[in-house]
User: Fold this.
Amino acid sequence: MIDNKLFTIREIDWVRDSEALLHFDASFTTDRIFRLETGDLSARFVEEILDEPLAKSYDLSGIEDAVNDSGLALVAACEQKITAFMTVKFEAWNRRAWLTHIYVASEFRGGGIGTRLVGEAIKFVKMQNARGLWLETQNFNYPAIRYYQNLGFRFCGFDRSLYDPAKVPGETAIYFCLDIGTGEAG
Assistant:
């Protein structure tokens, strides 16, 4: 593992970084998911161990729009190689910042780079006087869910209809927020 102090964090320069970002390996593999169980007025996520590991890769073809629409767009690089990136958008109408994208290359996960990027997002949120930092992931992304929980994000909702069930049956959007201290987030 590379010492995370060797990483440079800088703003995304689309001209310089576009090729690397469009071809960034934004995939994960997991042996467990959170299955959604619902009742008339209740819902809960149940951890489920899979018979076969699940692999998923995110389509980054729209990342240029996310970079352009963000208030903060950063990369982490080591020896000129982009190893992680994130985008954050501030929504003034509800004083909430939205972590729209965060990806860390698989060989650099667990080394603190994602946490450093989230730290930069928190600084941005505070500068905007936002109530909190909000994000969405999927019930299939068990590693991300646990990561966000370990950082202090709390579950604040879900949406069964966000993803096309014809493409990935059972995939549900899960929302998390991190209260920053300038009012209740979520």
The chain has one domain: 4-179. The first helix runs from residue 14 to 22. The chain has a mean pLDDT of 93. The first strand starts at residue 8 and ends at 11.
